Each structure stands twice: as C-alpha cells, then as structure tokens.
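Sorry, I am new here, but would you mind making up a protein's amino acid sequence and the tokens describing how it folds?
***
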Amino acid sequence: MTRVSPWLVALALLVAAVGCADDDAAEAAPPEVTGAETPEPAAPDVAAVYATIGDPGPDGDTLVGASTDVAERVELHESVIDDDGSARMVELEDGIDVAAGEGVVLERGGLHVMLMGLETELAEGDRYELTLEFERGGEVTVDVDVVPTVGGDDGGGGHDGQDEAHGDDDG
C-alpha cells in the first residue's frame, strides 16, 4: 500500500480551496444600483454622481472604479470635514466598500462618484451611461439622470478648485 504524505494532502486541499475561492469571486453577481443621478453642474468641467448600491451578498464587495463617455476621467470620492470645519473632497484610491447585508448610499456630503473633465455639457433632463466596476461583481452599467441642482449645490460636490478641494500637495 502506498502511503501519501499528510503535507501533500494538505497542499492539494489548499490548492482546491484557492481555486474555489477564485471561482466564487468570478461568479459573484454585481449589486443592484438604483437612483443614479447627477445634479445639473454649475461648473463646466466637473459633476457628481449619487446612487444607492444594494446588498452585494454575503461576502460584500468594493466599488473600485467607474467610467463614462461624458468625462475624461472618473474618480471615487468622499466628502470630509477637517478639524478647522472646512469641507474637502478626498479621492478613495482603494475604492468604496459595500458591506455585506447593507449596501451603501452615494450622496451629497458623503461618498460619491466624480466626473472630471466633462466632455459633454450636462443639462437637466439629460441621461448618460455610467459603468461601475466592482471587485467581485464585475461591471454594472446604469443610466444616470441629470436632475435640477438643489439647495445651491453646484453638482460638482464642492470641486470648484480641484487641487485645493482634494487637498493635493502635488497639484
């Protein structure tokens, strides 16, 4: 009778487990995205996108990027209040976590998507496509409605001076 090393069995089980984990990640369904809207921008080059991202499932997910034909680039941002009470936007290079069983709301004064370098003028009543990229769930393309600006918000999420608003030191 041939004896199999316990280390060899453990290695085989580990390889199988990693393979299953990769399969699970590839098969994860993207979360549902609803209520996608952009307030009509007052500034000609930036706009914010707000939406609700639903429950991504038991393992959670991360919104890692986005793209659209109406802007040169798209960034994931969070509004933060500094110790001196001033508000600024911070780019979230690691993405936006979408908690299992919860989802996340992208909204004014919080987490949001920024369209930078608008290539298309966005006016109330317009609609455009935005593709959101999730780490586990892949891509979701949604229609974004351009809605009236509310309460004096410029739709740019306070991005009048982009470098100052980001707090970037390297401009």
